[in-house]
Amino acid sequence: MKKIIYLFAAAITFANAVDAQIVVPSSWYGDFVKIDCKENMNDQVYEMEYDLWGDDSGNFTIESTGKNQFSVVGDDHAHKRTKAEYKVIGGQEMLLFKDSKGNILEHCVRSTKEWEKVIEDDVFQTLEGDYVDESGVKYAFKGNRLTMGGNSYNLSIDHDMFYILTIDGTDYWWSISTTGINLYHIVDGEYGREPGNLYHRLKNVSPNGRWAFLSTKIVPDFLMWRYNSELIRIMRNEIYARKGYVFSSADLKAYFSKQPWYKPLNNNAAVQLNDIETLNVEILKGNIVDREGSDDMEIEEGLK
Questions:
Q1: Which residues on adjacent β-strands are paired with residue 171?
Q2: Same domain for 229 and 262
Q3: What does DSSP assign to residue 213?
Q4: Segments forming the whole domain that contains residue 228
Q5: In angstroms, rounded to a whole number, what is the distance separating the alpha carbons of residues 15 and 27?
Q6: Which end of the chain is more exposed for a tag (fewer CB within 10 A), N or C?
Q7: How many separate domains does the chain show?
Q8: Per-residue pLDDT of the chain (304 residues; tens, 9 = 90+)
Q9: Residue 300 domain-assigned (yes or no)
Q10: How far apart are CA 94 and CA 287, in angstroms?
């Protein structure tokens, strides 16, 4: 499923732009969305340009409505996003776009990197973790390096087709599975390169959970849209599970009880989230809301 983004052809309003500390010029990135803040017109209204990875582009303006709080106004492209907020967590600047109920439907982060580098970093973050294949061979993805069977390899991605991962000079097609990632050989199809025969199914066996980084890093918008709503729900609740939260839902209780790292506290009142974890919980909850009424992402079977 390709995410349809309606927001960025809208006119967005911001009140007290000084409070928002929007830097001019600056670039903000979401899931294949780049927004450039081009001009501060009168300390309250900013001229912005958006680009949807070459599929669409245009201009809009922003104007403050309160300290770090914004309203979204404009044409039909605004969709469900009616509010926005400027936030800084862990040194990361973000624009959080929300619906009328305050659910975060989209978040864009400020970066000085080139767009291709931002996408590359998001792919590596999506893959990061410890895995094991069908034969018991161990894999560890960390940044642009892969350790496999005791050997270390360079990683890179095709910036035109981000699902193509190059491991030490050989290209593979990667995809998210129910339990980790799948790697495929690549063949030439009718419309270009596409996945061929399965190379390996990799099961995530990271010692602190599949998405342990959510305690220290904001979840990339890119990453969320590689998963279906069922896995997003597990991802969100894994944040609580790492703190020892005891679940009442039967499916969550069954899932986390099978995780070797899960240590229930039997005292949910003692569970405390840090600022990054709290924001990630809100972002992941809003992502599920944003999917309502849309076809869900198809996720492949993983290694059991």
A1: 166
A2: yes
A3: G
A4: 214-291
A5: 20
A6: C
A7: 3
A8: 344 333 443 333 433 334 546 788 999 998 888 889 887 777 667 777 888 877 788 777 777 888 888 777 654 445 577 788 899 998 899 999 889 899 999 899 999 999 889 999 999 999 999 999 999 999 999 999 999 988 999 999 998 889 999 999 999 999 999 999 999 999 999 889 999 999 999 999 999 999 999 999 999 988 898 999 999 999 999 999 999 999 999 999 999 999 999 999 989 999 999 999 999 999 999 999 888 877 787 888 998 8
A9: no
A10: 16
Q: Which domain CATH number covers 276?
A: 1.20.58.1690
Residues 105 and 148 in one domain: no
Closest CA to 254 of 241, 267, 273, 265: 241
178 and 272 housed in the same domain:
no
Token pair belonging to 263: 């240590």
Contacts of 249 (CB under 8 A, 6+ apart): none
Residue at a domain's end among 112, 136, 169: 112
Roughly what angle, to the nearest 10 degrees, separates helices 250-257 and 229-241? 70
Q: What is the DSSP string of 253-272?
A: HHHHHT-TT----S-GGG--
Kindly state whether residues 28 and 104 are assigned to the same domain: yes
Q: Give the end of a domain, one of 86, 112, 138.
A: 112
Residue 1, in any domain of the structure:
no
In a domain, 301, yes or no: no
The CA radius of gyration of the chain, in Å to the nearest whole number, is 20
Instruction: Give every CB contact of residue 55 below 8 A, 6+ residues apart in sequence.
Output: none
Yes or no: say if 123 and 104 are a contact pair by the CB < 8 Å rule. Answer: no
Q: Residue type for 273, please?
A: L
pTM, entire model = 0.86
Element (H, E) at 250: helix 250-257
Rounded to 5 degrees, φ, ψ at 229 are: -65, -30
299 in a domain, yes or no?
Answer: no
